[in-house]
Amino acid sequence: MKKNLLLISVICFFNHTMLQAQISGEKLILGVSSSLNVVNTGSNIMSLGLSSTNYKSNASGYTEPDPETSYSFNLLPKVGYMLTKNIALGINANIATYSYKRSYLGQKYNYKSSLINAGPFAKFYFDSNKVFPYLEAGGSYGLFKEKSTSTPEYKNGIFKIGGELGMAISLGEKATFDTLFGYNSITVKDKENNPNNERVVIETFEVKLGFTIFL
What pTM does this model have? Predict the structure, then answer.
């Protein structure tokens, strides 16, 4: 029993030492993550997934339509610099797309949206003996595009601001696996012909999974 406790203590010590070296000894950080929404209020584009929906019936003469399919992809790369052993500043980006297809009675409907934005972030690491919890906050600005079978493509400006609580788990001397729970407020509005400043505000809670490399 004592040997097991000693082994666990040694493992925790080395994990703590490696994380300390990563955060305090290295300056450049590179990261990438993707998000899975916990509460989705219409922001399908901010999630990651693939789905298919089928409509079935036992009614006489019923013709089963083609399945509805949807696909969403969301990638969040970032690059930063460690100012101190606890504080990092940098730039993050968001590249995402969402598509939806439906066919009924010979009529096909397609919808697709995409966004790209970038902006600054700040991250604060807390000292810990096992893994490193951290807080991160940031904002970004970019372009949102949307089109469908029945409407032409139009472009809107998008502004995103949010914060999250994360946990960095060591994967070796220069990498961590990151889990994050955060909140985002996303504002989408027409950049032209909008005298009344009409806009759509989407509030989303999400879980992010990703990796960080220290160079």
Answer: 0.70
Whole-angstrom Cα Rg for the chain:
22
| Domains within the chain, CATH numbers bracketed | 2-54+63-214 (2.40.160.20)
Among the listed residues 162, 161, 213, 215, the one whose alpha carbon sits nearest the alpha carbon of residue 33? 213
Are residues 98 and 45 in contact, defined by beta-carbon separation less than 8 angstroms? yes
**pLDDT (tens digit per residue) in 55-97:** 677 777 777 777 778 777 788 899 999 998 889 999 999 888 8
Alpha-carbon gap, residue 180 to 136, rounded angstroms: 9
